[in-house]
Amino acid sequence: MATFRVLQPGLLTTIQDLGRYGYESQGVPTSGAMDEFAFRVANILLGNEENAPALEITVLGPTLEVLEDVAVAVTGAQLPVEVNGKKRMVWTSFPLKKGDVLSIGAVSSGCRAYLAVNGGFKADVVMGSASAYTRGKLGGLEGRPLKKEDLLFRELEKKPTKFYRVDERYVPTYENVAEIRVILGPQDDYFDEDNIKLFLNSTYTITKDSDRMGYRLEGPQIRAKEKHDIITDGIVPGAIQIPANGNPIIMLKDAQTTGGYAKIATCIWSDLPKLAQLKPGDRIRFKAISVEEAQKVVGDLEKSIEQIKATLKIVNYFDITVNGKHYDVVLENIN
């Protein structure tokens, strides 16, 4: 049976997993969750496989009617989460009963949140991934964002035994100015030292012409020594192109797989979640690091995931009635 009915779809809500790999040579982007850290933790909170499909919520969340007893977890951007008008915390898993209404509002900090369900969302698996690539109409739910009256199903009907909250030490804070670490290249030799210094010592603003495909930036223009065009080569999420107008473009999860503009630098993989939580009007500064430093950061990120698993706080939910009135009670660390 269906798990949710979509009463309101939110601004842009899609089903994502960790991405579609191995088809870039055929022009198919990786897609996948923009903030892989928050996505993975949402599934961890429910005991799912970390790649289980979940909803990616952008800026404004959906309202869902609950059609069966389930458990969910919400992570990522700070935004109001309510069950029948009663508040729930982000970075926490909690139960839902048939007939409940789950409402997720607009972000107060960050840009993207993730709603995971126990057992994962059922989705169209294309080329080994459930991720929605809306430009190509692949994966997700018919390759598109959610719309009103959609029915959402679970892949597995598993039952959670406990509910958890992430220790505050590991919950990210999202600011409207972020330092993003990059590795210079692969075409940094197209730019002289002054322009590379300008790139690394400037603050750029994300323009409104930005989405899952890429962020266009506004700020000091970067000029190539001779030309900005290159023989078309591969693009990975995080690549920073410099087109002829000198305004950097950061390519993201839904970006095309090849491009013909020189790439001055590439954002390190571990900072893509930070990028995912920025929205138009937010600002970016770049910091160059070495490949060895980037590899260490990846290791540190994986350690933090393991620390989150080891320090989860147990949360208990009770619906009690006193003198005919219903109360929603949440208690932590009661075994």
Keyword list:
335 residues, mainly beta, Cyclophilin, 2 domains, seven-stranded mixed β-barrel, six-stranded antiparallel beta sheet, 22 strands, elongated, CT_A_B, PxpC, Cyclophilin-like_dom_sf
Largest sheet: 7 strands, mixed, barrel
**What is the H/E string?**
EEHEEEEEEEEEEEHEEEEEEHEHEE
Helix count? 4
Poorly predicted runs = none
| Domain unit count | 2
Oligomer: single chain
Could you give the order of strands across the largest sheet? 13-19-17-18-15-14-20
| Total DSSP E strands | 22
> Could you say which overall geometry the principal axes of the C-alpha atoms support?
elongated
Please estimate the helix content.
10-25%
Structural Rg: 21 Å
Report strand %. 35-45%
What structural category do the secondary elements indicate?
A: mainly beta
Mean pLDDT rating = 95
Protein name: KipI antagonist
Domain Carboxyltransferase: 25-304
Keywords: ATP-binding, Hydrolase, Nucleotide-binding
GO molecular function: ATP binding; hydrolase activity
